[in-house]
Write a structure and sequence with these properties.
With 445 residues, the protein is an alpha/beta fold. The chain is built from 16 helices and 12 strands.
């Protein structure tokens, strides 16, 4: 099928048939020859979908076609000893939950082949974070992946080149063509990778707020329902939690900084951020119950807390990192690079932190070099924000809003100005803080 005619059809608001969607996905996945769509054509189709949308059946067809654009894994004969479970977040700032949740689930008997992605727009990427660890490989190959799952119970990796290859290409193009914020594209992208990973159950963390792709509750609800309905229809039991992203999750945003915070969380070196701990427990409890490892969500939560407090989760994390080429003693010597310039950002006045433009903080990290503006950009793992203040605290004039980690003094100055502009300080405490959990979405049968 002629790519221009398919683009024209969606541009004009037509509903695409399964055959047309298959042709688009085949053009994405083709590596060479006349059947491969040009990047410009892929970007144009993505923009047409953003502007005109897709029906629920179109979205399901796109997810299914991308799932089967490459290999679909099957763990049933691998002898791993537990159900394959996974969690996915729609993206936020400072969201390092996967780094703790995967080993916590493994400590509770799950097998977690977590297929993760890189940063999109203002949000951080789990793969970029783990690559801050020297030697960590996110594309280990099937045999090494299987060995890691057998020894550690979890492996956080990228999609291999033969796993949902159509999504791999579309994902990269969306990141640089302002076509990230699309319910059908987000749904199809996430579920194509997760279904191709051969999961038994999935929990979705749909972020809501100023640092999320969904800034309004109705948008987050629409995405959550889309994900749950499409996944369930395809035979993958899924629950979605809509959680808050109106402030940085934890106290850091930036690749090496977030890994360090995750290690502190797992080892108990520092008391974990209360919101970060609660989100991790909420998601993990849903998943252990959904996957049949615990009879109730309450029992699952207790099992996760035991796995964390006993040190079992930290051991699983260390085993995973070592198996995937990272530091052999990551809990004590992670080898994370440190930015040469560290500058506190002073509060311009006294007041209560009443609002935070979290998206602006994420973009400040990207501008520091912690994310990508173009697919070819090289990420600097050292840079980012630490000690980021949460909503509802009172600060004196000159107290630190956040600590900028930068490669140069000039970059630090620009980031400091962006951070100051992102914080709203008020004379009175905010009357109500946004809830951490906004809604739970599950199929009704």
């Amino acid at each position: 099928m002629n790519p221009a005619e398919l683009i024209r059809a969606k541009r004009d608001g037509q509903r695409l048939s399964r055959a047309q969607i298959d042709a688009f996905v085949q053009g994405l996945a083709a590596t060479e020859g006349a059947g491969r769509w040009a990047d410009s054509q892929v970007g144009a189709m993505a923009m047409a979908i953003v502007l005109k949308g897709m029906s629920a059946p179109e979205t399901a067809d796109l997810a299914d076609a991308m799932t089967h654009s490459g290999t679909v894994l099957d763990w049933s004969a691998a002898g791993l000893g537990g159900p394959a479970l996974d969690k996915h977040s729609t993206g936020g700032v400072g969201d390092k939950v996967s780094l703790m949740l995967a080993p916590m689930l493994a400590a509770c008997g799950a097998v977690v082949p977590m297929i993760s992605g890189r940063g999109l727009a203002h949000t951080g990427g789990t793969l970029d974070k783990l690559e801050a660890l020297p030697g960590y490989t996110v594309d280990p190959g099937h045999d090494r992946l299987l060995h890691t799952l057998r020894t550690a119970g979890c492996a956080i990796v990228g999609a291999s080149r033969d796993l949902a290859p159509a999504d791999r290409r579309l994902y990269a193009i969306r990141d640089v063509t302002a076509t990230v914020e699309s319910l059908p594209l987000i749904t199809a992208s996430i579920l194509s990778k997760k279904r191709a990973a051969g999961l038994r159950a999935l929990v979705m963390d749909v972020k809501l707020g100023s640092g999320a792709f969904a800034a309004r509750l109705e948008d987050a609800q629409a995405l959550a329902h889309s994900l749950v309905q499409v996944a369930t229809r395809a035979g993958l039991p899924t629950v979605a939690l809509i959680t808050d992203m109106n402030q940085v999750l934890g106290s850091t945003a930036g690749n090496a900084l977030e890994v360090a915070e995750a290690i502190d969380f797992l080892t108990g070196r520092n008391p974990p951020d209360a919101r970060l701990l609660e989100v991790t427990l909420l998601l993990g409890a849903e998943l252990l119950h959904l996957g049949g490892l615990q009879p109730t969500v309450v029992a699952a939560r207790k099992a996760l807390q035991q796995g964390l407090s006993s040190g079992a989760a930290a051991e699983r994390f260390a085993c995973m990192v070592a198996a995937l080429g990272g530091p052999a003693d990551v809990l004590r010597a992670p080898g994370l690079a440190v930015a040469p310039v560290q500058r506190p950002v002073p509060a311009p006045r006294a007041g209560w932190v009443a609002a935070i433009d979290v998206r602006a903080l994420g973009l400040a990290v990207v501008a520091l070099g912690g994310g990508r503006s173009r697919p070819t950009d090289v990420v600097d793992p050292r840079v980012g924000l630490a000690a980021v203040q949460p909503l509802g605290v009172r600060l004196a004039a000159g107290e630190t809003l956040a600590l900028v980690h930068a490669a140069t003094a000039e970059a630090a100055a620009a980031a400091s100005a962006a951070v100051q502009a992102a914080f709203t300080l008020a004379d009175m405490a905010p009357p109500v803080l946004p809830p951490l959990l906004h809604q739970r979405v599950a199929t009704t049968g």
